[in-house]
Amino acid sequence: MKIFKKEEPQTYSVKGHSLRCPVCGNVYFWTKKVQLNTTMATFFNLDWANKNATCFVCSDCTHILWFLA
Ligand SMILES: [Zn+2]
Q1: Cα of 47 to ligand 1 centre, how many Å?
Q2: Rounded distance from Cα 20 to ligand 1 centre (Å)
Q3: What is 2-67's CATH number?
Q4: Averages of pLDDT over each 10 residues, the chain, 69 residues
Q5: C-alpha closest to that of 3 among 34, 35, 24, 27
Q6: By C-alpha distance, which of 66, 68, 60, 67 is closest to 23?
Q7: What is the torsional sign of CA 64, 31, 21, 44?
Q8: Which residues contact 54 (CB under 8 A, 6 or more apart)?
């Protein structure tokens, strides 16, 4: 996960709830906008959907949370 280490992790909230890592409880994340490739979009049955996603990477345990947005 070295590519994320240059940025300072931040806290985020989704729909008014603080984003918290379900594994370790950490609230600091790195974020990255990603474009889902066709294979992944098909795997998740998202051909109809916007194929952009945002991932939040826990700065402590590196667990990744995905949001389709
Ligand atoms: Zn974590």
Answers
A1: 30
A2: 8
A3: 2.20.25
A4: 70 95 97 78 66 91 91
A5: 34
A6: 60
A7: negative
A8: 31, 32, 33, 34, 66, 67, 69
